[in-house]
Structures are given as C-alpha cells and as structure tokens.
C-alpha cells in the first residue's frame, strides 16, 4: 500500500497566537474545522493546528494519507505498530494513530 505524507499536525496551546504567527511569518491561510482546529489546504504537505489540549499530540504529528484505512490499520498492526488511537471520523475523513517500534507517534488518514 502506498502512503504519502499529507499533514503535519502541531499542538497549539496558544491557538490564536499560533494561527496569527504562521499567517504573518509565512502567509498561510487557514480553513477552520471546528473552534480549536484549523488547517492549511494549499501547501504540498498541509499543516494542522490542534488547539484542544485533550486532542493535541504531545509533539508534531506526521499524518500519512492512504486510500484504504482498514488495510493500513491491519498492515501497521502486523508490522508491529502499537495503535494509540483507534479509527475515528473527523470533518474530511477518518484516521487512526500509532507508535512505531521506536516510539514515534504517527497518524494514518483516509480522506472522504
């Protein structure tokens, strides 16, 4: 199965300030997907800001895009990945998160 890096999700405890910083520093435009989540949609690899501390990753989170989420889940599990967040839906698709054997957390998403 092919997967490409689609997103880099950043924890944003200072959500409004983070949005403003990236707008001013790099000219990024944001699309809102809720009161505490926004994403760029025009970069080669898009950036998401997660302002909800309960859902924010502890570190930047690489998000891989696949065409068959359940197959990717089975492949990750079979390869030795530890699922940290089971499949869930979000505006625009579904995803799960896992840790690789070195402890790095990544996500895998399938867009709608």
CATH superfamily: 2,3-Dihydroxybiphenyl 1,2-Dioxygenase, domain 1
Task: Give me the Rg, rounded.
Answer: 14 Å
Distance between the termini: 18 Å
CATH class: Alpha Beta
Beta percentage is 35-45%
The total count of strands amounts to: 8
Biggest sheet character: 8 strands, mixed
The average pLDDT is: 93
- What are the low-pLDDT stretches, counting only 5+ consecutive residues below 50? none
Number of domains: 1
Query: What is the CATH architecture annotation?
Result: Roll
- Assign the structural class, choosing from mainly alpha, mainly beta, alpha/beta, alpha+beta, or little secondary structure: alpha+beta
Annotation field: number of helices: 2
What pattern of helices and strands is seen along the backbone? EHEEEEHEEE
Overall body shape: globular
Question: Reading side by side through the largest sheet, how are the strands ordered?
Answer: 2-3-4-1-5-8-7-6
- What is the CATH topology descriptor? 2,3-Dihydroxybiphenyl 1,2-Dioxygenase, domain 1
- Residue share in helices? 10-25%
Task: List key phrases describing it.
alpha+beta, 8-stranded mixed sheet, globular, 2 helices, 112 residues
Describe this structure in words.
The protein has helices at residues 15-26, 69-78; strands at residues 4-11, 31-32, 37-39, 46-50, 61-65, 82-90, 93-99, 105-111. It is globular, with a radius of gyration of 14 Å. An 8-stranded mixed β-sheet has the order 2-3-4-1-5-8-7-6, covered by helices on one side. The chain is 20% helix and 41% strand. With 112 residues, it is α+β, with helices and mostly antiparallel strands. It has one domain: 2,3-Dihydroxybiphenyl 1,2-Dioxygenase, domain 1 (Roll). The mean pLDDT is 93. β3 and β4 form a beta hairpin. The two termini are 18 Å apart.
